[in-house]
Amino acid sequence: MAAPTPKGANRSGQRDQCGTPIIGATVSSESGVFARAFGGGPLQGQKLVRFIFLDEGGISKREPWVVVAGVFVHGDNQVAALEERLAFLVKKHIPEELRDGFVFHATELWSGIGPIFKDRDRWPLPVRLNILHDLVRIPGQYEIPIVFFALERSRVVFDEVDMTKVSAHELLAAAHGMTFTGCTLRIEQHMLEVWPSEIAQLVAEDNDQARSIIKRAHEVIRNPKWIEQNNFEGLGSLLPLKKIRGAVHFANKVESSLTRSTMVWVTAISTARFA
Length: 275
Fold this sequence. Notes:
Elements: E1 22-23, E2 26-29, E3 32-35, E4 47-57, E5 65-74, H1 79-93, H2 106-111, H3 114-117, H4 125-136, H5 138-142, E6 146-152, H6 168-194, E7 198-205, H7 208-221, H8 224-229, E8 248-251, H9 256-274
Parallel strand pairs: 4-7, 7-8
Antiparallel strand pairs: 1-8, 2-3, 4-5, 5-6
C-alpha cells in the first residue's frame, strides 16, 4: 500500500522560508512551476490567511475509532493571541519547574498519564478537569471553528487490497490516512462556503507519524473508490481540492501547542455530545 510519488512532485527535502520541512509544495510542468492544492489539483484563491492546526487521535491499538481534527485560525488576527493565551494557562496551572517544553495534551489530561499528570496524588481528576475547563473555553472566546472526521477502524475498507497481507501497523496508518482525507474534505467544504477567496494552510506536528498519515492521505485521494466505500457522506464530490495549499507546514515546538490543543477541544466536545 505504498504511495508512489507522482512524476514531477516535490514531497521531500524541501523547506519553507523558516527552514521548516514541507511536503507537496510544487509540481513541475513544461511551462514552469505552479501552485498546487493538497492532493495535486489546481489551487484557487487570492489570500493565504487561514491556518488549520491539525491533530490525530485513535493511535492506540485499543481505540476503536481514528480521528483527525483541526481548528481554523486567522494568521493575522488570532495566532499570536492564541499562543499567548495557551502560554498564560501553562503559567497558571503548571509549576515553573515543569514548564520547559510543556504543551497540553488531551490524552494526558483526561487519563492522568504522561510525565507530569501520571502523579495522580499531585494531579487528581478535579485539578485536571479545572485545566480542561480553561482550555475548552478558548474556541468560544476566540470564535474559532473546529472541524473533525472520524472512522471506526474495523469498518475501514480498501477496494482491491488483500487485507490478509496488510500488517496491523500498515492498516492503522492507512486508516489514519483515510480519516485525514475526510478531514481535509470538510475543511475544503467550510472554506468554499465561508471564505471562498481565501486559501487554507495545513499545520501538523513535526513527527514521523504525521508524515506517514499525510503520505497515506495522498494515496487515498488518488483512489476515489476508497472514499466511496468509507461513508464520506458525499464529500468525495469536492475532489480535487482547490482551497487547501499543497505544502503541509510542520509545526515547531511553539506551534505544536496549538496542534495538540486541537484534540483537547475536540475530545471535550465529543464527550459532551455523547454523554
